[in-house]
Amino acid sequence: xxxxxxxxxxxxxxxxxxxxxxxxxxxxxxxxxxxxxxxxxxxxxxxxxxxxxxxxxxxxxxxxxxxxxxxxxxxxxxxxxxxxxxxxxxxxxxxxxxxxxxxxxxxxxxxxxxxxxxxxxxxxxxxxxxxxxxxxxxxxxxxxxxxxxxxxxxxxxxxxxxxxxxxxxxxxxxxxxxxxxxxxxxxxxxxxxxxxxxxxxxxxxxxxxxxxxxxxxxxxxxxxxxxxxxxxxxxxxxxxxxxxxxxxxxxxxxxxxxxxxxxxxxxxxxxxxxxxxxxxxxxxxxxxxxxxxxxxxxxxxxxxxxxxxxxxxxxxxxxxxxxxxxx
Length: 327
Ligand SMILES: [Cu+2]
What we know:
Elements: H1 5-12, H2 29-62, H3 79-108, E1 115-122, E2 125-129, E3 135-136, E4 139-142, E5 147-153, E6 158-162, E7 167-171, E8 177-181, E9 187-193, E10 206-211, H4 215-224, H5 226-229, H6 232-242, H7 245-248, E11 268-270, E12 276-278, H8 281-289, H9 312-324
Parallel strand pairs: 1-5, 4-10
Antiparallel strand pairs: 1-2, 2-3, 5-8, 6-7, 6-9, 9-10, 11-12
Helix pairs in contact: 2-3, 6-9
The chain binds copper (II) ion.
């Protein structure tokens, strides 16, 4: 097949909307805008790089020192040349600024009807809290609806990044940051943490699940009363898997950031200050709500508090689950 020269050039200098070749999928319309500007800047840079490189080589050869030719006096000043190289770049940066700034404002300011979802970053998991109180390790959203995320961190700085949406925002303890987006197709997109936040940093990922029309509401009611429907130990296991405990506690006796849950209930534990105590319901409850109150010997005080994040009935089913993990 013979390609026309413009078609080949167009595929080499990607000033096009579709980027499957080197950028991730464009999950939102805003992502398309970001890519468009990125490609514009890239195109301008490639053009000037090529122009300057070619001219440099040409001048090097053309005006090289040769036997018998004396160098003339160079001109000190060339008004029109100077005006040209000032005006053209100024216009270019103004255009880039205009599209960059308006695009930034569009991505920054959420529409008023946006659905709000709370996001918590913690070592080493994202937690998403929905309007009905449900907390999930993944971000579920309806299609064709602006969604605003209100994000904060429980411990260190995390970075919330959805490559497909070209959205990235720091998630900082003690303050709130936001992002918003509107996805027009059902599907799944990955979320990463982009700040090196410790041992489990590379596991700190989640999914954006974009539900087809009507499915989001259905999902929300279904998960809303899951805890009360499941047998306690199963509900507890579910919370162990979805609320971040798994990132730091194993259930097979293996080492991790925190003590393994295997055979924990009823065992005698030595604290950092030398005190000995037996693991019972009240001790576990305190360990979850106020982890810094008693530190197990040999471990760092890095467990985040779950005060306000786990309801009483949820702590109860976690305890029921821990009781089942016998040696
Ligand atoms: Cu992180």
